[in-house]
Specification:
This protein is an alpha+beta fold and 628 residues long. It contains 15 helices and 25 strands. The strands form 6 sheets. Strands 1, 2, 4, 7, 9, 12, 13 and 14 form an 8-stranded antiparallel beta sheet that branches. The N and C termini lie far apart (85 Å).
Amino acid sequence: MAPSITLSAVLATALLSVPGTAPDGTAAAPRADQARHDVALFSVKAPDNAAAQEFTAASSRLTRVGFFLNSAASTGTVTVQVRGERDDAASALATRTLDLAALGGAGAGWIEVPLDAPLRAGNPYYLFVQATTSESKAIAWYGTRHADPQAPVSWNYDRPHWGGWHPDAARLAFHINPVGGDRCGETDPCYVPASALSARTAGLLSNREVTEAVPPSLAVGAAYVDGSNVLRLPSGRWRYLPAGASASVVTGADDPGALRQITESRAWLAAGKVPGTTPERRAVSRRALLSMRALLRPNGAFAAAWSPAWENSWPRDGSFAAAAFAATGHDAEAYLMLRHDQATQRPDGTWEARTTLDGAGPPDARPWQLDGNGWVPWATWQWYRAAPAKDRAARLAALYPMVRKAADYAAESLDADGLPPASPDYWELPTDTTNIGTAAPLLSGLNAAAELARASGRTGDAARWAAAAQRLSDGIATHFAPGGYPRTSDGLHGRDSAAAFMAPPFNTAPADLPPALDSTYDALLLPNGGLAPGNDPDFSWGAYAWTPSTTFLALAWAGTGERAKADRVLDWVLSKRNGLGELPETVNGRGTPSSVAPLGWTDSLVLLTALALDGSPAPTPPTGPPAR
């Protein structure tokens, strides 16, 4: 009988057409499969329950079988057999026992099991499934009550209810020797652990014009072809976005279009720098660069991630990505992003918190954020320092009006104490007094703007912005430093991971910063090993660690010579990659990647940290006039 178990909504939508019916509605030849899985049909928990699916052999060899299982239990085993006689275990031609924990624990989806045995074409056989677990939770074989009556018979073993085996008009979901689109991971998910569904996205496909998210349900068992955004599926076939296409396709592993895309992306990586002191870190850097490239739009907009609420361009996220592109030798991408910043700058020199990817304007009424006036000049200076010398002066001249408007607004915003006004920062929440998440980026941006002015021969601008930077530095020293660089100048809102913005590659670290970084880390450390953005008593981040905030500290320690601390924190971040190797935005209390993956901001932070640990850090804007 159907047990009480609910199929995940994510998986319940992945239904296929009813087999046994031709496209014109007429009866088709009987098939040794049935793909629909819209309802829990039979419990398969031993000793009182099992299920068997009758099928007629279409070939002389059994190679694999597939069935759709939903398990609320996290531990136990699942035994799969192909039998000659339904109720005779001794008639089994092939047997395989699976461990539920090895499958990922509780979850749902198609399980494909290699089973090798000779068959007699035309003879009847039985696919038998039975599970054992010490948990009281349900384990069910799914199927449909709407299958073609000509489909093979499904059998339910329910000793308390039927007294034994019972044929049922409903049809279990199964495949015998599945190939092509019948293989899991192509049009229907392989068994997806419930923990994987805590994230909205798992990866990216891209042809540089169009980007498509890989859902967690179709990422299980898949892997990127190395150095590309082509996905190798569990079946061995490939999924990718062909040039000029608006949706991905599944092809053979020798598809010419996919091979060209792989060759091109590998050449792009080779044209720049892939940082990392170990093979693992270099692999992470390659994936981060490719994911950032996939998030970059042809107009220079940079999507934070590829899920609707993240498909907007934040000046902050884009500035970090531009700096990372520049530092790894990808000048064209960095400059394209800065030109987009220039196109979306408001007339007064500020930026919206975020804009739509077409640059038309903000997607909602979220208040604008002043920190962009620091991040964009800082990113522009990072690009300039890394850009080829032959034409960077002319390209800087094109960007300079943007820098001037941004820096002038920042300088003029400072009050008598040398501090900027209260403004939402990367928390995207208002504060009553100045926050370090705005003050520190503005300090970096003013120093960077002064350097760009000197490089452009604009001595008046340079002097004005350097003087403003000194006032701001004094204000931070007076109002933030005594409390260990807390979230706000009044000290009433706890600690903030943005204290790391006072370190390289943003600012020259003050002498009192090292103990502040240590105490900030200790205050924000969560049981899962990552950091919350802050510990404001008026706002809780719950049990979720934020990978950008955690990596802030790794980058700061790498920039201040605390290599052991930086390595430890970076290793934790890298340990939270998902099955495709993508870095998530958050990590939940169970230590599982959540929210979205990849997140472009985390990718760029990891790259900047890896560069610093390699001994080739991004530069830090100097304070005051350059030394002779």
